Amino acid sequence: MTDLQQALLDYLVTNMTDAADQEISSFRRMPEGWSRECFMFTLTWKEGGGEQSRDLILRKDPAGSLVYTDRMVEAGIIRALADTSIPVPAVWFLEVDGAALGSPFMIMERLPGTSSPAVLYAPENAEIRRSIGHDFIRHLATLHTTEIEGRDLSFLGPVPTTATAGVLSLEHWERTMAEQQLEPQPFLTQVARWLRRNMPEAPRVSVLHNDYRTGNFLFSGEHITGVVDWELARFGDPIEDLGWVFKDIWRLDGRICGFFEPDEFVAIYEECSGITVDREALRFWEVFAEFKHSVIGLTGTRTAVERKTDEINFSIAHLYLPPLFQEQASRIGI
């Protein structure tokens, strides 16, 4: 048993006060996750005269990341959405300091299914992608139309107005750029100015996932079984989420996330959500998505340069920047 496994078992024994004889098996690091270290394991224990078993996930803050986020946000949004039709895992434990395992962490139930884009895009799965695609859009529409009032979302901060939602999102990524850049970024500074000048008003204020795409949901058969990776969630313009979904990098043969042509995707989203998608606003948020992705690339580059992690993926984060810059330049007419 590794030191981490022993520390995890000690934590569970201490905090599962009604349980006895806890044991961990099948503990292994998951390949997924740039912003969190993810481990899967099976926990067995005795309680109420019987033996219990659950498949669980440990999501632990790494030394270095592509994005630095508050663990409270991820756990809070999952708990806040538990009574909706969006499939989210049950959160068992949340620790915001590193006393138990060396860094903040969350333990949640493991949902069935796979997140693998390779499986989703396999030729033999072409027929089921439409069904999965409808789930993908329906869950996003449900998120965007979930009422904020009366739901405990205080961890996301003050609720913006339709006029300020986009501006606050831009300011967040501008601050992140200022914190993470290793040198001045004159091109991205100009893109940020363009975004500020052309900022549309939101059709409404919604809860955003902020990284909604292939790889961040689980599926089995013809349906999505879980929506995951909520650490970037925030209030904002729902079309911002669509702009990220529409990025070319997630497309397959021109179809959005491999599911539908852009017009059909928008039509299904409008029918599910009742939100009218202004096409000019969508094009704006597509530019914004490239800007945001660039800032994430700057963060990954700094993480590698400062040797906060030995993960090889971070050493190539800077290679994403030139094509992202080119995409922004072509979209804003430079």
From TrEMBL:
Keywords: Kinase, Transferase
Annotated ranges, domain Aminoglycoside phosphotransferase: 51-255
Kinase as UniProt keyword: yes
GO MF terms held by the record: kinase activity
PANTHER family: AMINOGLYCOSIDE PHOSPHOTRANSFERASE-RELATED-RELATED (PTHR21310), BLR2944 PROTEIN (PTHR21310:SF57)
Name assigned to this protein: Aminoglycoside phosphotransferase (APT) family kinase protein
Protein's organism: Nocardioides soli
